[in-house]
UniProtKB/TrEMBL annotation, chains A, B:
Pathway: tRNA modification; tRNA-queuosine biosynthesis. It catalyses: 7-aminomethyl-7-carbaguanine + guanosine(34) in tRNA = 7-aminomethyl-7-carbaguanosine(34) in tRNA + guanine. This is Queuine tRNA-ribosyltransferase. Residues 12-379 form the tRNA-guanine(15) transglycosylase-like domain. Residues 254-260, 278-282 are annotated as: RNA binding. Its cofactor is Zn(2+). It comes from Candidatus Daviesbacteria bacterium RIFCSPLOWO2_01_FULL_39_12. GO terms for cellular component: cytoplasm. Belongs to the queuine tRNA-ribosyltransferase family. Its EC number is 2.4.2.29.
Amino acid sequence: MAQFKILHKSGKARVGQLKTAHGVIETPNFIPVGTQGSVKALSPRDLREIGVQVVLANTYHLMLRPGDQLIKKLGGLHQFMSWDGPIMTDSGGFQVFSLGVALEHGVGKLLREEETKAKPRLNKITEEGVTFQSHLDGSKQILTPEKSMQIQTNLGSDLTVAFDDLESPKHNYEETFKSLKLTERWELRSRGAFYGVTHGGIFKDLRIRSAKFVDQNFPGIALGGAHKDKKTLYQVIEWTVANVSEEKPRHLLGIGEVEDLFNCIERGIDLFDCVAPTRRARNGSLYISPKSGGNLKNNFTLNISKSKYKGDKNPIDNWCNCYACQNFSRAYLRHLCVAGEILYHHLATTHNVYFITNLVKKIREAILNNQFGKLKALWLTD
Amino acid sequence: MAQFKILHKSGKARVGQLKTAHGVIETPNFIPVGTQGSVKALSPRDLREIGVQVVLANTYHLMLRPGDQLIKKLGGLHQFMSWDGPIMTDSGGFQVFSLGVALEHGVGKLLREEETKAKPRLNKITEEGVTFQSHLDGSKQILTPEKSMQIQTNLGSDLTVAFDDLESPKHNYEETFKSLKLTERWELRSRGAFYGVTHGGIFKDLRIRSAKFVDQNFPGIALGGAHKDKKTLYQVIEWTVANVSEEKPRHLLGIGEVEDLFNCIERGIDLFDCVAPTRRARNGSLYISPKSGGNLKNNFTLNISKSKYKGDKNPIDNWCNCYACQNFSRAYLRHLCVAGEILYHHLATTHNVYFITNLVKKIREAILNNQFGKLKALWLTD
């Protein structure tokens, strides 16, 4: 099982190392999402070159296609996708539930992009687990804590996550508490999971209860649930961090925009996973640093499809050392994007993942040099 | 202007060098197509690693988007697409005509894949040139020999092609002769073009006339026109090669399957361009060598989407040294293909372009060692 060590602290921010069977993850770090066993448009050697240290794969997608048993037969997910670094898997619960809950409550914003394509139909939640229909062929599927752990084991995951119930942001206190208690029972059945997931919605006492519960039962703390807004998110992080062991790694599930990285690392978060860099790339949204005009208002991005970049000789970001910025102009990227060329996706994703990977690296260095506040001020000033 | 030198001959097959301002092209060679200034799913460094020495870009597509004047302003196509090797451009005529002629005559097979997406509407052919409507915005466009040469110059092409009229395979002798004479007048107006294009349909005297005409007026011979079947194609090559200077390079436009490479090089062809490797990759059709089961019947391909590859641990081709074959199984490629992952396109295209590039390299070596017949027999036996 993975082992965590803190090397340096600066305020609540920490620099550490998470050792896994497939190598060391320096923290704070960002984990790009490879839903179906592939980080969109990037090969494993691209990931290495970019500096990515760990990828996340989705249990829900891989159990349905190509199937975790097949992947196991083929030597596990590392060999299947030819990635010899650490792999984190989620429990599958988020995918199965989020659509059911989200559709019911009309809170589509909850969903990651992958979920909007993959539409499982939630049939029933029981004490045992959850039954649903595959979005691929309508076949009846069941996911339980035990089965989720078995799938993650079959995949050969380095960082596994316990099976949890997902509360809706529209749930009241009683509903949220009920959901949390089910999560606790399911997490206890998720034997061998590295991360337990904290829940409790926006309710302080439930969040504290959940933090303590996960801290007591798991080596790693994963902060879960849907977050109404950034203020609530930061509040939840503060409640949680204050109630878990200092020496355990803290992973914030599904979050990872530029602003979040600074504000959450400052509050003691060590790890992030998020589809933002890959999804943004596909939509023409490319990260830029403050020196290139990036700020809170534009989410540190430009929209490359805009006509104003038609003749722009500059790289996406003048201060970026990624392959795309070292070799191509905004004009070329815009052309590829508008023309629908596949190479656009490769170059845009390369840039965005490099940008975020490199930013967390700079943040690590800043924490080590006790310069985190200075770096944050450089980026987050209005 | 490019210069051609023959290094070795074995029968009609030759090994040579085509020197351009952007480097030497060893012949025989295969030129992958980068229609819109990008070889589908491959970056320039991918192309270099694969061993590609020259790429072809389409005048028709680039004149319309992003525009040849813009590309000129941005430093030319080499800088725009960050490819410092040789670039060949076509004249734009094929694209403009082929749909007009092909639609009229119902010979859709003529069209390259790119044309089926990009649908110019042909309005009028006059002595001056051709007017058509852009497939992008319906705007009225005109292409003349002079304009085609200007566009190719603006792009910074190393190997330009004269503007020609395209005959239909359904044209009779008189119609074909009429078209050929228009081609001759247009080619004479295509000042500075490296390649003249031969036409004349399936008519021996017209093909000989065209071969002699192009030989007299251009440094390079490009064999053009639509080809009814392989037998006719080989016949046309024989008529043409017998009537052009030995020391001039011979480019067969738009052809490049495995079988063609052997049969056409054997008849004296030096260069090929074709969308087959990139298009096939996108459709799940991946090249395999005879040792992996490739033969004339399956066009030296397997269809990776077939369920029989679901658990196949082998690489696409056990004897291939491309990045895809060195790192991934058929099972993974099939998964990416079926799941619609962008990485599939990158890996599949890498393999197919490497496969063909490496095959022409082997053919070059075989000719140098007077072993061409032996290599051909290894591949083309039934």
